[in-house]
Amino acid sequence: MSILSVKDAGFSRKAGPLFEHAYLEIEAHDRIGLIGRNGAGKSSLLGLLIRELVPDSGEIAWARDFSYSYLSQNIEVPDGVTLRDFLYLGNATEISAAVEKKERGADPADNRQSNVPTISLENRYRALCRELGLSDMDASLQYFSGGERKKAALARTLAPYSSLLVLDEPTNHLDVQTIEWFESKLAAKDQAFILVTHDRWFLDSVVNSIVEIDRHTLHSYPGSYSKFLERKAVDIASLDHMENKRLANLKIELEWLNRGARARATKSERRKKEIEKMRKSLLEEARSKVIFASNVARLGKKVCVMRGLGLSYGGRRLFGDFSWELGPGTKVGIVGPNGSGKTSLLKIIAGQLEPTEGSVEIGQTVRMSMFAQTNEAVDGELSVLDFIREHAEHFALPGTSDLDAESLLERFDFPRTFQKQKLRSLSGGEMRRLMLVRVLVESPNFLLLDEPTNDLDIETIESLETYCAEFSGSVLMVSHDRLLVDRLADELLIFDGHGQIERFHGSYFDWKLADAERAEAASRAGAAAAPRSNATSSNIGKRTMPAQASDTAPGSPIQASKSNKLSYKEKQELAGLLKEIDALESEKRNLDTFFQDPSGAISGGAPFPAPIDFVEAGRHYEEIDRLIAEKLARWEELASRE
After folding, report:
1. Disulfide: which of 20, 95, 468, 510 matches 10 by Cβ 3.0-4.6 Å?
2. Is residue 38 a contact partner of residue 463, using CB atoms and an 8 Å limit?
3. Distance CA 102, CA 450 (A)
């Protein structure tokens, strides 16, 4: 059943058309990945689908009962907004009005109108927030990190049921664990979605069709992102053959015109201009992706040596006693939850942050460049060309003589007409690409990359990936892009979020397999010991384990008939689960307080009893996390049958 239909739609900006004669049909169970270069019009198309923008031509038809949930790329939150306000109210304007009412002493719920959540929706908000580690509904979002704000936005988007989920760069600012959680949620949802993302692993995992905006036209491809790449390769090969043939024919005709009689001169000149225009058009269509390149200075045996390295912040130890040596030509990926110290480690190596313990030694032959997660502060009035000229007038790239700044920028897909633009007018993706050019022209032999794929389109990410794969120096990268890490890294540093850094020799995929095997072994051991064990804390109460797997296939008629209605005992269990989870969350908050100030007091004012050190506290914290996850899974299972 069609829920939305785009027919012959066109949309333009000041610079010209983004897309023309666009056709798109979205069915009730479509899972669409929308891709295209930065500036191609992806976010604009999403804006048309949710009625925020109006097409210049054509029409868009929505089903009568159409509804949507929208996750914006940029999350705007006025000061004073709590997590509860953010979830229950819609857009930033609506939230601002609620905050003003609250300040005047009025009830902000008056603003909610039809958005007032039902008990069931409120429970879904709470459950999703707990799963995402956001337990305090009255916490102010102005103190949230970018990742925490994105988690709050995910909960707000996923909780209500709607015809269509519209997701614009949903994985930005998320760590790998949260992205994998989000993947599982999308897989379990029985509703259509269309999403824009630069995360190729995520894209390949969740979509069943691809829509590409290429040269102002929408192209639809059924199947996963992998299938799209296979089809695209065939299309490009066919296009190359056709273009070569057309260019050859144009060349023959041009030669014939040049040999023509003077009597045909006027006609010949006109035809030659037409041919030249066609040739330029073909060259534009066949334009290759930007190719990153740089000279690499010779690298000695010593690159980076860390001895007993540690960092504490705000009374919390991010990591400690870490000793490791990075070898020449080694490419290492860093993964772990947000806030665990990944970026801080890069900053320590770059000399931008002092460790609280230990030391870092950099080799004498090292030329280090860091591509930071956020763009450095720049003079917005500088032009693109002047910005690069500040670093040097001439550059040498592999296989070329010295290039001037204009030619260099052209190599990195900044045309000469674009080079005069002010930095303040650049999009996020354009600014990131320019910063990457600045890093590469320094001819580094040791690259520090902190979330390098942020704001880049897929084509640019692929070019960066190719460059790093062929880079003869050393690379240390923090990235939530699992495909990038998997393809480039031959070693991993895994931050566990509790002060430990694990080293793993192998790819990201190898590590995930090993991690799954460890989890399965631990689960088997736990199941064997379960009849003989008791709860570790009297506060926790009786554990509620997820339903055991059976031979019956999930979703089969047999299983559905067995679990269609809740028994009286299950209803009692459901009623008590949220209270049990609240108690666990309270204990978790006490542990958080202990981590920040071990000698202090818990929220109730009593001294923290036990565990008495970080190691014991860390283990207890992990146990509570596990119990919360189990109880949430059980709550979701029962609530879905209520």
Report:
1. 20
2. no
3. 40
> Which stretches of 327-413 are assigned E, i.e. beta strand?
331-335, 357-362, 368-371, 394-395, 403-404
Tokens of 114: 């039809």
pLDDT of residue 559: 38
User: CB–CB of 54/6 below 8 Å?
Assistant: no
Lowest average pLDDT, out of 17-21, 31-35, 219-223, 553-557, goes to 553-557
Q: How many other CB atoms are found less than 10 A from the CB of residue 27? A: 12
Q: Could you give the CA distance from residue 255 to residue 258 in angstroms, rounded to a whole number?
A: 5
Residue with tokens 């693109």: 384
Distance between CA atoms of 487 and 228, rounded to whole angstroms? 19
Q: Burial of 403 by CB count in 10 Å (0-12 exposed, 13-18 middle, 19+ buried)?
A: middle
Cβ–Cβ < 8 Å for 367, 356: no
pTM, rounded to two decimals:
0.70
**What Cα–Cα distance (Å) separates residue 378 from each residue in 88, 382, 434?**
38, 8, 12
Helix (H, G, I), strand (E, B) or coil at 325: strand
User: What count of other Cβ atoms lies within 10 Å of the Cβ of residue 104?
Assistant: 8
Q: How far is 617 from 637, CA to CA, in rounded Å?
A: 30
Angle at 142 between CA 139 and CA 143, to 5 degrees: 70
Q: Determine the Cα–Cα distance for residues 640 and 642; give it in Å rounded to an integer.
A: 6
